[in-house]
Amino acid sequence: MKLFHAPLAVILAATGGVSVWQVMAADPVADPAPAPANINPGIAACLGCHKGPDLGSAIRFVKDYKSDEFVRLNESMIWESHDPHSKAFSVLKTPLGEQMGKNLNYKDVTTEVACLACHAMDIDPYKKDKKPSDFVAQDSLGIGCQGCHGLQSDWQSKHYEEAFRNNGSVIPWRESTPEEKGKAGLKNLRDPQVKAAHCATCHVGDPEMGRVVTHAMYAAGHPPLLPYELSTYTSDQPRHWGTPFDPKLKYFHSMKPEKAHKLFSFYPDEGQAGYDARHVAIGAVMGLNAEAKLLAHESDKATPAGLDYARFDCYACHHDLKVPSARQERGYEGAPGRPPLKAWNGALTGVIAAHAAQTSNTKVAEIAKQFPDKWKATQQAAYAKPLGDPVAMKKAAAELSAWSLAFANALQSSPIYTPEEAKKLQAMLVKAAADKKYLADAEAVMALVWASRALDNQTADWSSLAELLPISVRTPSEVMSKTPTTVGDLLKDRMRLFNGYDAEKFKAHFPPKPSTKE
Amino acid sequence: MLLLVSSLAIAGSATSRPEAQPSSSPVASCSAASCHGGMDVGKIGSEVTTWRSADPHSKAYSVLFNPDSQRIIANLRKGDSNRWRDAAHLEQACLNCHSTGAHSTFDGQPIDASSDGVGCDGCHGPSEKWLPKHYEPTWKGLTFQQKRDLGFNDTKDLGSRTLICASCHVGDKDRDVNHDLIAAGHPRLAFDYSRFHYQPGYTKHWTETQPERDFEIRSWFIGQVAALRAAANLTVERTSHGVVPELTEQSCFACHQSLTTPIRGTPGETPQWQPWHVTLLSTLIEESPKLFPGATAPKLVQFPVKQLGKALSNDERRRHAEALTADLDRWLDDLRKADSSQPIPADVLRQLAANLAIAGSKAPSDYDCLAPYYLALAALHHADEKTLGGISNSLESIAKQLKYKKGQTGPGEFDAETVKAAFAAIAKLLASP
How many angstroms separate the CA atoms of B186 and B179, rounded? Predict the structure, then answer.
């Protein structure tokens, strides 16, 4: 798959059509560059400039090239202090990691490829039959800068080269196209589709990269993967990068619309709200795309007992049985007793598609209107037999995957999230979170709350819900804490809160009232 | 949607009896005042009256009209416009267990005696041929097989009795309370013979022919084997009539628990096929010849049990389930032929209870693996409180953990370690003379 895209990307880049490239590329994740022969992992070099705009080498670049109007320049400092990705590898050595190793009969979790695929930096993600030596696994680094931005050393040296094109007023790299930067090994994470797809390879999964959390792993102790709501994930890292609407990043402020889209895939006229809506929407749809690919892949591997449990809604099974049953009262998309697909996938994408279907952009609306049928077909394949009908699932999942990619492409290339439409999307998300269709599904409600909150722009008091269900991936105290809390303890707290979800209580407090704070 | 709903194999629409089978008589036919319909509840000659007043089987049909049954049908048939949404009493899948009298004959005429619920013939066998014979003097001289050939299910024989219980309470061809049905609202089937027949609210309409204590112990044992046999046979039936994979064949609460840390249960330890019926098997095998001299369990009976826990093709599954059913039939035969006339010595009983307690203390931390141990010890304790006195406190603490809380249809957050520690305490108590 990778090799197919390398020549394609080159051809299309030569024709100058960035949007064409995005529409025709089947997989925005596939790195157009070949597997880096010269990799350079590590944060030390990055810290040289990215510790702060008034520190180290950054000072010169600020003075000569106003680099602080293009990037924040304190990215590495923020990441190093707060970002949990740095611990991705070292968590394998915690009691929970050891427990998992024991339960799964692994000799050593730290050299187990199935774990390293997500918990360490993968030098060549699409390589088959990887060995531990195919990963960069360092305690202090975890999924370091290069894990997302690119392991290749080329861009790391080129991106501050002052004589690259002898431009003068700015670092030439700044004006390069994403394709040129991609050839040097930099992933275009400014593109919401690329970013969403990349994060999803670990946070949802990617079978071709060997990034699959199986039910056996969950049973052994792996924390349940959370609903993939990109904005909440990134804001909880916390976000170490700037957005075009940061007051300091003046480079973007007067950007002409065509230039902005060509270079950085955002629409200045959409404003901050639209920018955020775009990230929520494309995030969810690419998350669904990742799940669909997993479903198709697992259909191939299915035993007579059906697909792996991990492909279904965790909490459709994992709940204490009560009478009266909220689930029976809610009803089922298929028949009772059959594990369904993850409710949050259908809920989040459903609202986004429903919103897009009512916009005036016919291209987007037409694709959006197909979602209910695509979802229904996949859901029916799940319901046809307990744990899915592999034949029907393979077909339906492939269609869902193709649809989600087409929809994300259409969203990407269409400025539909005007301030009014962004507000409408937020309102629809809020409405869905309290809809009886989803109220019995704590995880779907949580995903919708997260998305609603991400688009709220801090006007409401969301902390009033904090005792009812997790309103974010990480709690603020956890993000800011200097003393590390173990994954085991964090998980315990989160599951206790999540399991305590009560639909009636939630409904009484939702939506949260406007914030009284200044 | 319609296609989905009708593809649910709750149970076939076929009737539960092949054509050649003799027909049943309605309860009315047994209830002449001079036969079994006398007015002295609890006495011989008043069996029907006793049954009507105190046996839940008499209400098996009428429960199909209550709100719970209507809710089940509504959940199952939602969207299916061809069916009445609240007519559980018209659903063959329900009637196959909840009523045995649909095709009865009275006075030579066909009669629908569905409203009998599980009537006399439901347990005693379709009476067309044996009814005229069973009040003749020659009846008592007939052999077990001769009676059987007449369609009579000799409930004095514990194997026959518990197998007929299990045919509904575990399942059989066309009697399949599977996961689809349970998800729609049907209670889970957690059959334990002793738990059913010795519960306080149940009044037997018969007297046992053997001394109570030994009978209770032996009936507990045979009940376990019969239930396992019914489960094995049900798996066979499911390979041609059932939903595959059938989720009820695994531990209910391994899935149906809210995810706390640590999760309840240990991955890889819980048997993957019918843990409820399989968990006691090792102890039963060991104790078989002590309670039933000469009756040893088939040597390899554990093998098909283990195979059935794997992800098998339909054919492989059928093969192993058939082998297991045949093994268990052989065992039940041996148990029948064994000499059950001797009283069970007190030390044998103590050892049996101790072995059960030890095994329970080491069982996987899963509800379906632990609860049967409690029920076993409770049954034995009920049979002989004198010999097993002193374990009741521990039993009570175990019961507290295992009992469903109000509003729940599962144990919720039960503490497996407390339960296992209590079993260990029982074992210790029984080890000291």
Answer: 9
The shortest C-alpha distance from B240 to chain A (Å) reads 15
The CA distance from B347 to A136, in Å, is: 65
Peptide bond into B411 cis (omega under 30): no
Nearest 5°: phi and psi at A306?
Answer: 100, -165
DSSP category for residue A322: B
For residue B109, what are the β-bridge partners?
A: B106
Q: For B245, which of A306, A336, A380 is closest by C-beta distance?
A: A306
Per-residue pLDDT band for B264 (boundaries 50, 70, 90) equals confident
User: Residue A112 corresponds to which tokens in the numbers above?
Assistant: 């187990």
Q: How many CB pairs under 8 A join A and B?
A: 104
Type of residue found at B97:
C
Which residues of chain A lie closer than 8 angstroms to B181, CB-CB?
A: 337
CB contact under 8 A, B245 and A323: no
Q: How far apart are CA B97 and CA B174, in angstroms?
A: 9
Q: Can you say how many angstroms the Cα of residue A518 is from the centroid of all Cα atoms in its chain?
A: 31
User: Which of A303, A383, A385 minimises the CB distance to B311?
Assistant: A303
Instruction: Tell me which chain A residues have a C-beta less than 8 angstroms from the C-beta of B4.
Output: 334-335, 380, 383-384
Torsion of CA B130, B132, B134, B135, to 10 degrees: 170
Mapping DSSP to helix (H, G, I), strand (E, B) and coil, where does residue B60 land? coil
Residue type, position B18, single letter: P
Distance (Å, rounded) from C-alpha B165 to C-alpha A180? 76
User: Cβ separation of B408 and A317 shorter than 8 Å?
Assistant: no
pLDDT at position B433 is 65
For residue A305, what are the CA distances in angstroms to A390, B325, B388? 10, 22, 44
Q: pLDDT digit string (tens) for A228-271? A: 999 999 999 999 999 999 999 999 988 887 778 778 888 988 99
User: B212 near B197, Cβ under 8 Å?
Assistant: no
Q: What is the ipTM of this complex?
A: 0.86
Q: What stretches in chain A show pLDDT beneath 50?
A: 1-26, 32-33, 164-165
Inform me whether the C-beta atom of residue B380 falls under 8 Å from chain A C-beta atoms.
no
**């939702």: which residue's tokens?**
A510
Q: How many CA atoms lie within 13 A of B149 on its CB side?
A: 6
**DSSP one-letter code for A191:** S
Distance from CA of A305 to the nearest CA of B (A): 5
φ, ψ at A514 (rounded to 5°): -55, 145
* A residues 187-216 closer than 8 Å to B (CB): 216
Q: Which residue of A has its CA nearest to B183?
A: A337
B residues 109-148 near A, CB within 8 Å? none
Per the rule left: phi > 0, alpha: psi between -120 and 50, beta: everything else, A271 is left
The reply to whether residue A499 touches residue B259, judged by beta carbons under 8 angstroms, is yes
- Chain B positions touching A495 (Cβ under 8 A) are 259-261
CB A370 within 8 A of CB A403: yes
A335 with B5: Cβ contact below 8 A = yes
DSSP alpha helix (H) spans, A15-158: 18-24, 44-50, 58-65, 75-82, 95-103, 113-119, 145-149, 153-158
Say if residues A175 and A23 touch (Cβ distance below 8 Å).
no
Q: Which of A470, A458, A475 is nearest to A512 (CA)?
A: A458
CB contact under 8 A, A331 and B78: yes
Residue with tokens 């699409």: A126
How far apart, in whole angstroms, are the C-alpha atoms of residue B422 and residue B393? 9
pTM, to two decimals = 0.90
CB contact under 8 Å between B183 and A306, yes or no, is no
Closest CA relative to residue B387, chosen from B221, B217, B218: B217
Does the distance separating the beta carbons of A337 and B183 come in below 8 Å?
yes
Q: Cβ of A219 and B263 within 8 Å? A: yes
**Token pair for B283:** 């102890």
Q: What does the alpha-carbon distance between residue B340 and residue B338 come to, in Å, rounded to a whole number?
A: 6
